[in-house]
Design a protein that fits this description.
Elements: E1 27-30, E2 39-44, E3 47-52, E4 60-70, H1 76-87, E5 92-94, E6 113-118, E7 121-125, E8 129-135, H2 148-165, E9 170-183, H3 192-198, E10 205-209, H4 212-215, E11 226-230, E12 236-239, E13 244-250, H5 253-269
Antiparallel strand pairs: 1-2, 2-3, 4-8, 4-9, 5-6, 6-7, 7-8, 9-13, 10-11, 11-12, 12-13
Length: 270
């Protein structure tokens, strides 16, 4: 088992703890799973924090959401009957103005939208639009311009099959939201505290939000992670001392790729 243990030259300052130094009894290891490197954990009060995980990881898209505009308005009652023959109980009729309220009787009540699963993707069908969301597990990014291949994959393997299943055609579609993940190789437990203090806004990052372990230690979740808010498009990148970065709410893979590369550059010079 390969284990990485890092020491800090100084402790971590917390809101209710004046100064905390890592000692031998605060550090322990966990046995690795098959074909995985062991992890080192640090007990920080009520928190148990992983220090390092050795893994191969490149930037990749994860969850997405796109909106499709249909060529013609759809008859939701007729489409509901057709889809029930193929997808049975997987199809649900929703009340107008409410995605959470199910229509009790489609013969008596209006239908605002239809909800169903098509090829593992969640689909909401409205009168003139279709919202599709799901994961990008089947996507394999090839060489070429960042973002271009992903749009082609969405069009060929997601949008087109879904629209064929709905027996309708689209005039246009756009990617509304894209999440992703990446491993920042230059971030580790030795330099993370310095990055938290020294990273500043740039032309691509409008805001740098420190870890909540400093500002709100009572919160849970990724309390050790800091957040970089992107200046355009509304996307953000959140990463911690392990180097694991998560990207949220980007409008394209190209924008995500640009922000990740910029973050890597400023980390190297910080």
């Amino acid at each position: 088992m390969c284990v990485y243990i890092y020491t800090f030259s100084s402790g971590i300052f917390l809101k209710d703890v004046r100064e905390f130094y890592f000692t031998r009894r605060n550090v322990f290891t966990r046995a690795p799973k098959k074909r995985r490197v062991g992890l080192v954990f640090i007990k920080l009060g009520s928190w148990v924090i992983p220090i390092h995980k050795n893994t191969n990881h490149t930037m990749r898209p994860t969850m997405f959401m796109c909106m499709v505009v249909t060529r013609d308005p759809m008859d939701l009652h007729g489409l509901y009957r057709v889809l029930r023959e193929t997808y049975a109980d997987n199809v649900t009729a929703k009340s107008p103005g409410s995605l959470g309220q199910t229509v009790p009787d489609t013969n008596l009540w209006q239908i605002g939208s239809l909800s169903l699963k098509i090829n593992t993707y969640s689909v909401f069908v409205f009168k003139t639009k279709v919202k599709i969301s799901g994961g990008s597990k089947d996507f394999n990014e090839e060489q070429g311009e960042p973002g271009g291949d992903y749009d082609e994959w969405l069009d060929e393997h997601v949008v087109s099959p879904v629209m064929r299943a709905l027996h309708t055609e689209s005039t246009s579609w756009k990617l509304c939201l894209l999440n992703g993940s990446h491993l920042l190789e230059d971030v580790n437990a030795k330099n993370y505290m310095r990055l938290c203090k020294e990273l500043r806004p740039t032309h691509l990052f409008s805001q740098v939000i420190p870890p909540t372990m400093f500002t709100a230690p009572e919160r849970r979740g990724r309390v050790c992670s800091m957040c970089m808010k992107c200046a355009q498009g509304g996307g953000s990148i959140r990463f911690d001392h392990s180097g694991k970065a998560q990207m949220f709410a980007f409008k394209s893979l190209r924008d995500m790729d640009a922000c990740v590369k910029h973050l890597i550059e400023i980390i190297k010079i910080t």
